[in-house]
Design goal:
Helices cover 32% and strands 26% of the residues. By secondary structure, it is an alpha/beta fold. The chain folds into two domains: 188 residues, D-Maltodextrin-Binding Protein, domain 2 (3-Layer(aba) Sandwich), CATH 3.40.190; 82 residues, D-Maltodextrin-Binding Protein, domain 2. Strands 2-1-3-10-4 form a five-stranded mixed sheet, sandwiched between helices. A five-stranded mixed sheet has the order 7-6-8-5-9, with helices on both faces. Strands 11-12-13 form a three-stranded antiparallel sheet, covered by helices on one side. The relative contact order is 0.16.
Length: 286
């Protein structure tokens, strides 16, 4: 059986796609998967912040159109880049095990900053800016776009004093950060973006690809994905709304922490079969 996988061309997108292909091969060795790459609007327009060029959909729209037309059988996405509403007839059929979800501050070797220091941090995320400013009240922020390697080069070139990255990205790329100083933040310090470090696979509903992907999906991560996506939906959030969310599964219970654009925070625990009720309860506390 042959399947066509759609993905962006960036090194991280390709690395994540290979992770999914390896999962497919392990479960369905007879499957032959061809990779079809796309250059999305978000990849083409690197000189403007995401919220100025259309939000999260700028990384997804062209790929979803290819799915709907049958040009590809499934698409591999960074789950945090997915828009609130998927394309008509499409679904997230499966996810990979969650990677290292932590945000981290990367600075040059030998350089570190205290909570009272004034320094410039490269990030285009309003969520990261809001959360980081609580930890470092005197920090200044500047927009940054481009792939992980490009951002690290800009840091090395002195365009920023530090940059904020997701740990999973550098780990999946196999990048060594030995020449930098790295400080990882736990969720209670800097709440991640909803679904951060989860790889999501999108398919046409009812398709053969959807059946295959659902069989390799990581069950615990899918529950976490669904809970954090529900937060986005209930709050009506996209990349212009700095929402944070992080969940963990403990037995048949799910622990969930969320924050909104005003910096309000709520957390709680509920049954994994009643995720919607838990999200509703927590969002009403914000």
């Amino acid at each position: 059986m042959k399947l066509r996988a759609g993905t962006r061309k960036s090194p991280l997108a390709m690395a994540q796609t290979m992770m999914i292909l390896n999962m497919i091969k392990a479960a369905f060795p007879e499957c032959d998967v061809e990779i079809v790459t796309f250059t999305t609007k978000g990849d083409r327009q690197l000189d403007r912040p995401l919220d100025k060029i259309g939000g999260k959909g700028v990384f997804v729209t062209e790929i979803e159109q290819a799915l709907q037309s049958g040009a590809i059988d499934f698409a591999v996405h960074s789950a945090k880049d997915l828009p609130v509403v998927l394309g008509e007839g499409l679904e997230i059929s499966g996810v990979s095990p969650r990677g290292n979800y932590r945000d981290m501050l990367v600075t040059k070797k030998g350089v570190s900053f205290g909570t009272s220091d004034v320094f410039t941090v490269g990030t285009g995320s309003q969520r990261r800016r809001g959360g980081f400013a609580k930890l470092y009240p005197n920090a200044k922020f500047a927009d940054i776009r481009g792939n992980v390697g490009t951002r690290l080069k800009k840091l090395s070139d002195g365009l920023y004093d530090g940059i904020i990255l997701c740990a999973a990205g550098t780990e999946r790329l196999g990048l060594s950060l030995e020449e930098y100083e790295v400080k990882e933040f736990e969720p209670w310090e800097l709440l991640p973006a909803p679904c951060q470090a989860i790889i999501a696979v999108e398919c046409a509903k009812g398709s053969k690809a959807a059946d295959i992907i659902s069989r390799i999906s990581h069950g615990e991560t899918m529950l976490r994905f669904q809970a954090e996506r529900e937060v986005i939906k209930v709050l009506g959030a996209d990349c212009t709304v700095p929402v944070g969310a992080y969940s963990e599964i403990k037995g048949d219970r799910i622990e969930l922490a969320i924050s909104d654009g005003q910096g309000h925070f709520a957390n709680g625990c509920g049954d994994t079969h009643r995720i919607s009720e838990l999200v509703k309860e927590l969002t009403e506390k914000l």
